[in-house]
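Figure 2 data, in text form.
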Amino acid sequence: MQPRDTPPTEPTTTPAAGPTGAPRTADAAYDVLVVGGGVIGLVTAWQAARRGLATAVADPAPGGGAAQVAAGMLAAVTELHYGEEALLALNLAAAERYPAFAAELAEASGQDIGYRRCGALSVALDADDRAQLRELHGFQQRLGLSAQWLSGSECRRLEPMLAPGVRGGLRVDGDHQTDPRLLTAALVTACERAGVAFHRSLAVRLRIAGAGAGADERAAGAELADGTRIAAGQTVLAAGSRSGGLVGVPEAVRPPVRPVKGQVLRLRMPGAGTPFLSRTVRAVVRGSSVYLVPRESGELVVGATSEELGWDTTVTAGGVYELLRDAHELLPGLTELPLVETGAGLRPGSPDNAPLLGPTALAGLHLATGHYRNGVLLTPVTGDALAAVLTGGELPEVARPFAATRFGTTHQRHEGRHA
């Protein structure tokens, strides 16, 4: 959508070049500015624009971010962790929403997102792993989740390429997958078709209106690295692990997110007619989680390390070795496949490994970040939740435990931070 008419107090000049969907101006005004063009920022912008809001995205490279190296597992049940029962409800809601969301996005973009109802299989390679997997199965059953215990031989009948030493496993037919690269590409196209304006520059400072007015202060857009000043009635911080670094965000509402590094590999499976894997397979090997996600395109994604190393995105020989070694324990034939790509990305972790969604204590500022390992899975419900609050409603009930204010911060005045 085209930017709103700029208020009289914000004089407008128009340089020659401009962002996709709108002329670049020194001051442009929108209903909503989304800071960050990864999968979460894009779905937020698309859903806002679909509801009639003049929407812009500020990002140097929309469609990038952690999703470019994600495996795309939609694994609400398989990835269940102890102590994350509240997050489970949100993950299950997202999984239920995915088929309709995939269809809506395919219609809006004209592009496939690689959504597959392929199921998942978690396997155990030794007696200790088997005991832990049995315990997890009991936990899943107590929560009413659908997971079927299989013997080692049943696992191998299901996936013949599995190692002979597999001792047992859990079959979860309700856990599916999508291709995050196709997903983000489709979201970029859907945003463009919905009229979202892309300002392909980094947001460097939050603008705050009502300087010195205390409780009357509100977020009012952002300044970009290229000099563009964007005015917005509502601003959404959706910049992944960098959401906490925007200058001008008061400390009291700054999102507590951190980068968590993950290294992944992409291999090429044999051509048609040669069975390899039909579903996602995962296990814990030597205390580390490893997963293998087969795509219909013939790609096999192997991941992922989890490393608390700050902003480092180096692909290391050790990381590649460990992933290949552990994957080989599951599928001995894997080491014969061509290795076509290595990569590393930064997941946005939060203190409780769950997202921060919706309004902050600073009027006009919303969060959509902190999704950690569930960003692709939670894409549909995040878009729905942010669209609800951006159009004057409240967070949906299932998202309320993940309100942006849940860590107890309250907005305070911060002199010298205003635009």
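Caption note: Residues 21-116+176-257+350-419 form a domain with the FAD/NAD(P)-binding domain fold (CATH 3.50.50.60).
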